[in-house]
Amino acid sequence: MRLAWDTGGEYAGAMTSHWDPKKLPGLHGHTVVVTGGNAGLGYFTCEQLSAAGARVIMAARNPERARAAISAIRSVVPGARIDYLELDLANLESVRTAVDRLAAEGPLSALVANAGVIGSAERRTTADGFELQVGTNHLGHFALIAGLLPEFEAAGTRIVHVGSISHRWTRIRPHDLMPERYNNSNAYASSKLAVMSFGFELAERLRLRQSTAQSIVAHPGFALKTFTPPRPGVRLNRHAPFRELIMRPVAHGKDTGAWPLVRAAVDDSVPNGAYCGPHGWFQLKGVPTIVQAKRHARERNTASKLIDVSEELTGVRLPL
To answer: Which of 77, 141, 209, 320 is the most exposed place for a label (fewest CB within 10 A)?
Structure first.
């Protein structure tokens, strides 16, 4: 699924200030799954892929919000081929059901593991007793990906893990994924570092077995609802004009923040094990390209221990 990105030349070199996803080459015949596709980054990932002709499976927890999001996409992209799959990543039984249903779908071109929980003032837990952020952001996606990996390898699927610049300021201790002392911001950053660590380690394991499946990590930069174009039925919050003026130089909308996710999902010039994000200052905004992750996100010993603990907690073995 090679795309002609408007970068003015070499992939890692020249950049432009604008990329129009409506000008993507056709993706007809390709099926892409997007978790958390009913809002935010996931919504615009679905919209952009639909505009390019892909069949999209929107995997989300709330059917009512998913129906509203699908209606909004079809209002922008007439004839969009988009289906809904119920998936609650905070419930491993729901994940197991989704694995069975997706395995029956046939070859999947890509999975964008986007869904996530951002912030909880008090410690909350999933249906299986995990801290909500690590349980949803990492463990739920781990179980989904591990359960589908045989199908992904057979189809050469591109697996996109959605990370965050917040990984720079935290470390994970695999044996203590859910410490007793809860800190909201650290819980989120740790969950995203776990997502990235798993994504990079999975890429190495796929490379060693010469698999055609690929594991890529992407992040949206500083993507805010306040700079996002409205869509009917899709909830967006606006900030005060003065605050918007202050944030504009360092932030962009969810629509632009979805670009690295889309590029990672469908551009085969983005290789296995890459980290795709905005090219601008501090990776906060800009055209998507390959960027640098902090070294600790690629530390393989920690990642291997993380996978061992994730298998134990979820009861799902990573088959490689």
So the answer is: 209
DSSP string, 207-261: HHTT-S-EEEEE---SEEGGGSPPBTTB------HHHHHHHGGG-EEHHHHTHHH
Cα–Cα distance for residue pair 310/303, rounded to 1 Å: 10
Q: What does the pLDDT look like over 91-140, one tens digit per residue?
A: 999 999 999 999 999 999 999 999 999 877 889 999 999 999 999 999 99
- The Cα–Cα gap between 41 and 21 comes to 14
Give Cα separations from 305 to 89, 223, 309 (angstroms).
Answer: 22, 31, 6
Token reading at 81 = 């081929």
What is the domain partition of the chain in residue ranges?
A: 21-314
CATH level 3 topology of 21-314: Rossmann fold (3.40.50)
Phi, psi for residue 38 in degrees, rounded to 5: -90, -5
Q: Which SS3 state, helix, strand or coil, does residue 112 take?
A: strand
Structure-block tokens of residue 177: 């994924």
Global confidence as pTM: 0.90
**Angle 49-109-210 from CA coordinates, rounded to 5°:** 140
